[in-house]
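Troubleshooting log. The previous structure file for this entry was overwritten by mistake, so regenerating from the original sequence record. Sequence copied from the archived sheet and checked twice against the printout by T.R.
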Amino acid sequence: MKVGEWMERKLITIDRKTTIQRAILLMKKHSIRHLPVIDEGRLVGLVTEGDMRQVFVASLIEELSIDDVMIKDPVTVKSDAEIDDAARLIYYNKIGGLPVVDEDQRLLGIITVADIMAAFIELMGVLKSSSRIDVVLGQDPEAFEEVSRIISSKGGKIISVGMLPQSDRKENIYFFRLKKRRIGKIVDALGEAGYTVIASME
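Regenerated output below.
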């Protein structure tokens, strides 16, 4: 999944001349936490709700401007980047969102933690009516393909697959989310093939 498919395109933006008080009012009015700062169509900075809280009182008694408080070199992402890449950038930089820009730094959108969460929920099929089987796979590189084949041969339609790595890395647990169905025969077939099913849910 690409960032461009999940980013917010209808943006509220400000310029360097916007007052801090005006920026705070915009955030409250539109229930947003990020305001991109634009100069001639290009992204030049970003202000966040946290930035505003820290300087609000000072801005009432000092000559502080958006230029003084904005993040002047914000972490950005391209619209054709994978959602996984955006998630990593947000996680490692401990930020709540990323401006999405083109090669000329023109603002295309913004993607937030909430947008990425929605993308992963869609990818994993969490909100869909589904069944789930958690299976222990050893170090055999063909185990994943065999388990997938067994599930399919018993009528299971796989929606998504995830992995819960174990500390010793010898017995990773894979969870298979399937289209809603009875899974007793699948569980039995996996057991007969030598795989341990540690949990199942219809």
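The two ends are 28 Å apart (CA to CA). Archived copy saved in two places this time.
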